[in-house]
Input
Amino acid sequence: MRYVAVDSSALRIAPLDTLSAIYHRASGITHIVDSPVPELLAALAQPRTVDELLAHLSAEYDVPDADSAALAERLAELEGAGLVMRA
Amino acid sequence: MSDDSSTPEGSTRRRALMLGAVGASAIVSIRPALAQAAGSVVTCEIPVPDPARAGKYIAADGSLVDPGTPGAFPPASGAFKGEDVKRALTGGQLPGTDHDRSKAYTNYIRRLQSGQSGFTCFASLQMPRG
Output
């Protein structure tokens, strides 16, 4: 199972201090998100499995809680919000 | 994802990224009023493509192209039910289509914008669960 973020042209992302507002043009919904959501969307500009994504994030960042179960839950949440889809 | 947020090249200090605990949530969604007013997800329909652009073919990425474009699919014979689209958006297949055609149609639906036929139905399908 691979996941990919919706096309970045469909999103307008505005940093709000520690949070970010993501306006999804297609659905008209605004999502207020905390880290690691913007980082996950950036990493999912190309399709990746949960394991590939975790490896990519671990290479880019210090990930003290590199837990694939937690990452899978973040992805499910993003999928439910319509920001990530299965590739 | 934004254009001006780049990581310095050759940076030696890496930023910490917390994935968060299972059960925690990192997203709060603000729904537009139009979506709350939308009809039932089960009964609303999405034509592929919009009748205003009838006759166009649908490319694999969901863009509309001229009829006969190689690799593109002809329009769907009928509008899809919201329930079928909801299933397709989460990895299922649209009825009466094969895998590639379903993906092209689903990509088209994901690109719908306000003012296009089916947008309100699509927006209501995007409502976060619960």
In short: Chain A has a mean pLDDT of 91. Residues 2-86 of chain A form a domain with the Outer Surface Protein A; domain 3 fold (CATH 3.90.930.60). The helical segments of chain A are 37-43, 50-60, 68-81.
